[in-house]
Design brief:
The complex is a heterodimer of chains A (120) and B (106). Chain A has 120 residues and is an all-beta fold. In chain A, 0% of the residues lie in helices and 52% in strands. In chain A, strands 2, 4, 5, 6, 9, 10 and 11 form a seven-stranded mixed β-sheet that branches. A four-stranded antiparallel β-sheet of chain A has the order 1-3-8-7, with no helix packed on it. Chain A is globular and about 40 Å long. Chain B is built from no helices and nine strands. The chains are: A mainly beta (120), B mainly beta (106).
Chain lengths: 120, 106
């Protein structure tokens, strides 16, 4: 059974960097059938795709984040990570990691989500 | 950027059919995926590639896609189907979600 678990500091100050990690169990981030994905959901709002990464390190991002997001993969730890720089209150959200099937990019396995709050 | 339009809300009586729509320019030419999200929970994939159900999703859930509208149909709606539903498509190397429809069964 594939499981994803997000982790990271729940509270970040404005202008700082939000760093989150997703630990994968029951599958390998080196599995060439999948992209590893980050999404978020602000309180009371809809889902927003942040980006995804392939095991080779190739990553794709939501243009709306204006290069503030960086996704990386660590095959030795079976993890992938998100860094979001220069955060503001608008970045407060539940952050999800998920697995996306190659070519079709539907998200078949999700983590439970972790809350990231930006506040001074 | 590519936009997906979903009605904010839909109400249906128990046992009736709920028809949720997702509008987009020539969306019929894209693969559409649907997710169900209950309060406080992560989304769950209910339909992928327009009309395919993952294992464990009841046959009451079906999907179609043509022209400018994709549709998620929930037959014999139950109280347990109350949730937010989101459609998703890929466009030029990015993934786009609709704003979501809140389905009420009462």
């Amino acid at each position: 059974q594939v499981q994803l678990q997000e982790s990271g500091p729940g509270l970040v100050k404005p202008s700082q960097t939000l760093s989150l990690t997703c630990t994968v169990s029951g599958d390998s981030v080196s599995n060439d059938n999948y992209y590893w994905t980050w999404l978020r959901q602000p309180p009371g709002k809809g889902l927003e795709w942040i980006g995804y990464i392939y095991y080779t390190g190739s990553a794709y991002y939501n243009p709306s984040l204006k290069s503030r997001a960086t996704i990386s993969v660590d095959t030795s730890k079976n993890q992938f990570s998100l860094k979001l720089t220069s955060v503001t209150a608008a970045d407060t959200a539940v952050y999800y990691c998920a697995r996306a099937l190659l070519y079709f990019f539907y998200l078949d396995v999700w983590g439970k989500g972790t809350t990231g709050t930006v506040s001074s | 950027s590519y936009d997906l339009t979903q009605p904010l809300s839909l109400s249906v009586a128990p046992g009736q059919t709920a028809t949720l729509t997702c509008g987009g320019d020539n969306i019929g030419n894209k693969n559409v995926h649907w997710y169900q999200q209950k309060p406080g929970q992560a989304p769950v994939l209910v339909i992928y590639r327009d009309s395919n159900r993952p294992s464990g999703i009841p046959e009451r859930f079906s999907g179609s896609n043509s022209g400018n509208t994709a549709t998620l149909t929930i037959s014999r709606a139950q109280a347990g189907d109350e949730a937010d539903y989101y459609c998703q498509v890929g466009d030029s190397g990015t993934e786009v979600f609709g704003g979501g429809t809140k389905l009420t069964v009462l």
